[in-house]
Amino acid sequence: MGMKAITFVSALVFASSAYAQDSNQLNVEGEIYASTVAAPSHMENVDTLYSGWHFRSGETQALQLDDFDNPGMVFIDQGIDLFGKVDGSEGKSCESCHENVEDFAGLRTALPRVENGELVAMEDLVNECRTERMGADAWKWSSTNMTAMTGLIGFQSRGMPMSVKIDGDATKFWEKGKELYYTRVGQLDMACSNCHEDNYGVMIRADHLSQGQINGFPTYRLKNAKLNSVHARFKGCMSNIRATPFKEGGNEFKALELYIASRGQGLAVETPSVRN
Amino acid sequence: MASGVKPRVKVPKKASAGDVITIKTLISHKMESGQRKDGDGNVIPRSIINRFVADFNGENVIDVTLEPAISTNPYFQFDAMVPESGEFHFTWYDDDGDVYETKKKITVS
Amino acid sequence: MELSRRKLLAMGASSIALMSLGTLPAFASKADDEIAKFTGGAELGEGALELTAPEIAENGNTVPIEISAPGAVSVTVLADGNPVPNVATFNFGKLNASRSASTRIRLSKTQNVIAIAKMEDGSFQMAKANVKVTIGGCGG
């Protein structure tokens, strides 16, 4: 399965959609993003990577093609306000040190990464700035402020290919993430791979299973009408299979984030993507 | 005042006389429906944008009455005929009495 | 799990068959009341009002709809399965030449979206669309 099923599924979606595009291309504001690429060599069971965008209905897909129509942009705007807002005992805003948010172009593609022997995600970097340099309180991992900020920073890399480092000092974290990906957990006794590797493109009740790619995060979901962090999504998946979720921002989810990011190497960053 | 309310509009900067242009508007607002309950089982009171008006040079383009079934961050797309240069005036009315406004100029040649 | 193209085709075909079989449920009375309020009980014509809505909504929170009724002065939109059927009423000014608008609405479950247009000559037009609201894969 794989290629055929996806092609078919998207054909069905397009045939039934009043908002069908001419072709099955992710064309955002006139720029075509890499949303279908060859799988990296470390993936043994998957040949082609598909952005989660391909698995959505025509109406949901359309929301991501125009920045005014994309409801996630409301939160990017909030991120811009936060970026310039002074907070904490040092009287600083993000802007005090990082004059242009555009300078963060490329950062999203390389996270999580190892710093001083620790695996760090973008949320860690934001909170480090807040607590160490601004004298402000850390934001909660998936809070509105945090997702607005990671959304804004991630948005600077939109269109750039995902490219996390998985060798050298990252190897042990990557291997831990891989182990978690294939380990069955919860009352339903399921691993990430059961849905997102073995059965992507297949219906799970009224929904299409995707490959579980994270290149569009934080992602705006129609379900809760806000930006959602990668770890919040992991947590949701784990609850759905009746497992006790790991902690957001914990070592398990960070390792899993690195591994899943590496399963999307080459896909364009879509932040903020729109999903159901 | 409801927090984080911010109007956004997309209007072309230029047009030819008599052109029909497309306008998109969106205002960030939670549109609390009055149907939801909080953790203690109490109904969360309704708090929505209940009216949206778009005018051009004092002439009405569209006047919408919104109910709680309009999605979070109300979005509207509609057409307008622009006979001459001027200014669009967009107004949103909140249940709590607040009024949000924004204006956009267009040059018609 | 191996899923053949044939199986997928069969799945697709059966879901399409189900869709076309689905008869539109009778209007909820609340929606009927609102229609009567808007029209004063006048007869409803069809054809001059177009309502565009997806056959299947991936999530009921954000369902895009469009109404278009050249010659209308106003259009009201109702959702007959929502706790409150009223959705929105569009009053068109002179400068809205096409008498059309799009928005995003909430649907609590699978139901009919109904649009009623009041035309310039005082007559009324109706259009409706059945929208299936799906439940996410893991109940989420």
Secondary-structure blueprint:
The complex is a heterotrimer of chains A (276), B (109) and C (140).
Chain A: H1 3-15, E1 27-28, E2 31-32, E3 36-38, E4 48-50, H2 58-62, H3 73-83, H4 94-97, E5 113-115, E6 118-120, H5 122-134, H6 144-155, H7 171-182, H8 192-196, E7 203-204, E8 207-208, E9 219-221, E10 226-228, H9 230-240, H10 251-262, E11 274-275
Parallel strand pairs in A: 9-11
Antiparallel strand pairs in A: 1-2, 3-4, 5-6, 7-8, 9-10
Helix pairs in contact in A: 3-6, 7-10
Chain B: E1 7-10, E2 14-15, E3 19-27, E4 49-56, E5 59-66, E6 75-82, E7 86-94, E8 99-108
Parallel strand pairs in B: 2-8
Antiparallel strand pairs in B: 1-3, 3-6, 4-5, 4-7, 7-8
Chain C: H1 5-21, H2 29-39, E1 44-45, E2 50-52, E3 56-57, E4 63-68, E5 72-79, E6 86-92, E7 100-105, E8 111-119, E9 124-133
Parallel strand pairs in C: 1-9, 3-9
Antiparallel strand pairs in C: 2-4, 4-7, 5-6, 5-8, 8-9
List keywords for this structure.
heterotrimer, A: 276 residues, alpha+beta, Cytochrome Bc1 Complex, Chain D, domain 2, 2 domains, 3-stranded mixed beta sheet, two-stranded antiparallel ribbon, 10 helices, disordered N terminus, C: 140 residues, Immunoglobulin-like, 6-stranded mixed beta sheet, 3-stranded antiparallel beta sheet, 20% helix
Descriptive notes:
- The complex is a heterotrimer of chains A (276), B (109) and C (140).
- Chain A has helices spanning 3-15, 58-62, 73-83, 94-97, 122-134, 144-155, 171-182, 192-196, 230-240, 251-262; strands spanning 27-28, 31-32, 36-38, 48-50, 113-115, 118-120, 203-204, 207-208, 219-221, 226-228, 274-275.
- Chain A is α+β, with helices and mostly antiparallel strands.
- In chain A, the strands form 5 sheets. Chain A has a 3-stranded mixed sheet.
- Chain A has 2 domains: 3-70 and 159-275, Orthogonal Bundle (Cytochrome Bc1 Complex, Chain D, domain 2); 73-155, Orthogonal Bundle (Cytochrome Bc1 Complex, Chain D, domain 2), CATH 1.10.760.10.
- Chain B is mainly β.
- Chain B has no helices and 8 strands.
- A 5-stranded mixed sheet of chain B has the order 2-8-7-4-5, with no helix packed on it.
- The N and C termini of chain B lie far apart (40 Å).
- With 140 residues, chain C is α+β, with helices and mostly antiparallel strands.
- In chain C, a hairpin with a 4-residue loop joins strand 8 (111-119) and strand 9 (124-133).
- Chain C starts with a helix and ends in a 7-residue tail after the last strand.
- Chains A and C meet through helix 1, helix 2, strand 7 and helix 9 of A and helix 1 and strand 3 of C.
